[in-house]
Amino acid sequence: MRSLLNTTLLGLFAFVLAMAGAIDIRSEVVHGMQYCGNFANADGSMSTQLVDKLGEGDLKDRQYTVAAHGCNRVQCWDTSGVYVCNDNDSELTVSGEQVSDVGELILSGCCMFSASGKDIGQEIMSGQQFTQWGWNVIVAYADCNVPITEKPSNLGGYGVNGGTCWEYSSMAG
What we know:
Blueprint: H1 2-26, E1 32-36, E2 42-43, H2 44-54, H3 57-61, E3 63-66, E4 71-77, E5 80-86, E6 92-95, H4 96-109, E7 124-125, E8 127-130, E9 135-141, E10 168-172
Antiparallel strand pairs: 1-8, 1-10, 2-7, 3-6, 4-5, 5-9, 8-9
Helix pairs in contact: 2-4
């Protein structure tokens, strides 16, 4: 009887541990608002390359620290950039892989259509994805010659990467 009880308890313990792992995995899904067309445009194909590179090689494990209520540009090429912004009251550190994962949501959901409804096939990119953890990612116009802490909303850059991305918002996750 004691052996059966021990076996049952061990089985129950294993089940609880397995479920705890599954819950942790599900908690990594991003839940937050996505805004498209809310910044000056980046080049669409360059945006894809920048976001993808953050999830690969050395950049995948690189740590990016952002001050409370600040934004850092973490990738930049020519007139396109990827930013991490911290909405928390304390400093935040995220990995390149985390930024890439959130950036992929922007790439898969923004700038498919122009403001007039024309299919533009992501020739341009402008979007922001918020997370439930108090930080967000922006893919938009960038000036690689200004300090990395310069917020994209301060840069202007409208018209550099021509076209108009359809502005809209939706909930991710």
